[in-house]
Specification:
Structural class: alpha+beta
CATH topology of the largest domain: L,D-transpeptidase catalytic domain-like
Number of strands: 20
Order of helices and strands: EEHHHHEEEEEEEEEHEEEHEEHHHHEEEE
CATH class of the largest domain: Mainly Beta
Helix content: 25-40%
Oligomer: single chain
Shape: elongated
Radius of gyration: 25 Å
Distance between the termini: 45 Å
Number of domains: 3
Number of helices: 10
Amino acid sequence: MIIFNKKFKATFTLASILISISMILSGSSFAKESIGEVYESKLMRVVETVEQGNLDQALPMVDALLNEYPKSRIGALIKADILSAMAGDLTNFGDGIQDKLIRTNFSHELNLRATWRNESNLPRKDEMIPASILDMGQDKYVFVGEASTGRFFIFGNNNGVPYLVKDYYMTIGTAGFGKQVEGDNKTPIGLYSVTREIDGKTLPDLYGSGAFPVDYPNKVDRWRKRTGYGIWLHGTPSDTYSRAPLASQGCFVLSNDDYDEVATFLRQVEKPRVLLLEKVKWFSQEEHKKQRQEYLKVMQEWVAGWESLDIDRYLSFYDRDNLNFGKLDFTPWSKRKKAINQRKKFIQLSLGLQSMYIYPGEKDMFAVDFKQNYLSDNYKGISDKTIYWKKSSEGQWKIIYEGDRA
């Protein structure tokens, strides 16, 4: 909250999280500023100027912002409050907004934008590796939405290790995140794939420039009995620059400027992965390398068990109660595996890792996409597979899904 005194000086309780915009996240974005980044920089420069008590300077700055971005609703609200404060009719920044919901959204958006642009809240450049992305494999880009902070990230691939390319302000559902049932107006948490692109010209104005639907509910969601449909990444209506932080029916939303830029990255990936999570946990390169090795060790032990021809050892890696998310009966499946195994003289496996992710919103679960090259004395074959691992109550990693990409 900004409090104006009689001399129009201001104190801002967000001062501890605002920094000079000249920093512009010097360590977190490795590409030229996008239109959305320029907009956010100029918006927060206005707020910083008000915070410093320079209302006469802030007024032409907000006018310039609105001249360049006339659909900026938050810019218009800031201007109204500046004028009211200069006339002596306003004490607290935001009090000029009569509608309680709009006032709440106003404060929420400023807090989210200011917090992300505060250098002290961010790790160093070499420690901005998201823990959830263990290995990008063949994925050129991976897309991450951080629901709790309203931020959307694009990560590039450096020999499997992610690096931050761009980040954007993002809107989520009116009821927040953690979708469970149809109509709860929450954005889901999970690992998803983009299924297609829809041209904005074929959609209602609500969706702006266009949309990229994701595969909610996926196999994990259905296992958890979550319902609903129509979760999309999309743009904003034509009459506004960006929406409030909590404003969709569960979709994750960008300004049209940001959407258009993100779309150029999405089109470069055959099956784009999107991680929607509550909060990004950042790792250094050393921490990320150590964690990746720990999860790869689980895969290596499974391969060794299969190649050993010790069927009990091999079967011990599978969850008897939840195999293929509870859709596969372990008893007849294991009998078939034993019968096949008895006819083998040797088994050799080589795995070509394609990607590996910790599954958001689930305790101790990760997914691995890989190309399996199988060779035995009576069969050989190459197949694309996905395995989902989940740690049991006894602390052992168990396979709960093996098959086509989930």
